[in-house]
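#onboarding

Welcome to the new folks! Below is a worked example of what a typical request in this channel looks like: someone posts a single protein sequence, and someone else replies with the predicted structure as tokens. Don't worry about understanding the tokens yet, we'll cover that in week two.

Example request:
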Amino acid sequence: MAIRIALVQCNVAVGDLTGNAAMIRSNAAAALTEVADIVVFPEMCLCGYPPEDLLLRPRFLEDTRRALDQLADGWEGPVLMAGFAEQQGKNVYNSLAVIQGGRIAAVYRKMLLPNYGVFDEKRYFTPGYEPIVFELNGVRLALTICEDIWNLDWLTRFLKECRFDAIINISASPFHSGKSPQRQAIIGQCAAHFRKPVLYCNLIGGQDELVFDGRSLVADHSGTIIASGKAFQNDIVYADITMQNQSAIVCLSKSTESAPAKEELEPVAEVYQALVLGTRDYVRKNGFSKVMIGLSGGIDSALTAAIAADALGPDNVLGITMPSRFNSTDTQDDARKLAENLGIQFHSLPIESILKEFSGVLSAVPGWNEKGLAYENLQARIRGCLMMSLSNQFGCMVLTTGNKSETAVGYCTLYGDTAGGFAVIKDVPKTLVYQLSDYVNRVAQKQRIPQSTIDRIPTAELRTNQKDSDSLPEYDILDVILQGYIERDKSPSELIAEGFPPRTVERVFRLVDLAEYKRRQCPPGVKITPRAFGKDRRMPITNRYKPDFPEMHER
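Example response:
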């Protein structure tokens, strides 16, 4: 009694029912050449994940079911297990279909519906109500979907009356830095708890701000991870399950190229790969082939350009520098040098004459002057206008270059540097921008990003001798406070107790809260931290709640 199972981690597009079904068929055919008995695909792979309010459209659900029926019709290959959105009467389920012998032989419906972070499953789905154990060649497989195995106490009660030899789990688990070891621990604990193998199949690809990193897993009965799918790539992991003395023994098939117990990517490397994949899929899945980036000579735009070149190819990236009199010769040279190093197209469009014309027109309104923040922001808005005009003319998507630290405190200009279609490093703190830039050069073993760009004191160059630290705390301090507030829900008192200056903490909290209206108008960007702006953190714009600053009252 033995079966060979293929775990297919694949890249799908939300709503592309025809394309996704074709992908399932082609991968199943490939697995058939390796004599696979069962081919497993990720959660919701037929319709894509997350389909969000498409799930509220009856026609979408009908078309999904029609695509599933067509996939099953006449299928005589190995057993297919694939995720889809299922409507039954007034209920909608997150389901797993078992296709065997040209028909849908069984359907398992997800029981535990996550409703935290980026997940909204209770908005759309009804929880399932019964376990499904599928048997093939004497091997009994308990079917589960993603969250079902993250609560061992619940899963133990759920499967209490079931006889099974191994667990199949299909998943659409999005990436954030540090999540892979957490997943491995969950899968390993589940296997060790039941003393049975667990086979976990995860999605890959970018979907709006989410990135799915694959890394499908096979754990043996002891909880040891014996195989891992590739990170951020299509991959198939083959595993053989053999029954010995009424126990299931899992081992890797010779067909599996993915190394067992593969070493984890270093954190900066996995973040970079996530940014590349997320950018590539957002651009291409939305029908674009080329992108444009405003190159200031600074580190944020340099890193964004490097990611874009790796994601789409240098020939599909256009860099535009738009200097005013405040931009130094050094930063202008660095912008050009960066374009040469990356092999991307490059144009220089000086804006000084436009700036003078705009300011001249505005001078007709009493009180306008060239000394304040409005004049600085005017430069950014001129640049945003030029970029969007070129985007319209040439059909290129504009990539914005603001990082998480700036986005958090509103250190950006609406309709200026925030104008564009995708914010590549929106969830990347400034301190991590430097680490990623060093990584880019280290991997290339040359200066793709000029070292002078990395070494330069951060500046927006919107006025003479301007530095970011004129307006913000130093980034190594700012980023720790922001992480505490945004990602860990720490109170001002907790951060002050950790040694941060009370005035600085109060100021950062106030800036973050005041900038909510700006963030709502910024383009989406790749999620790489445990809590990104957007779906992860949904705060009201009109908000009079102010955290208590006990230390402040003593001033």
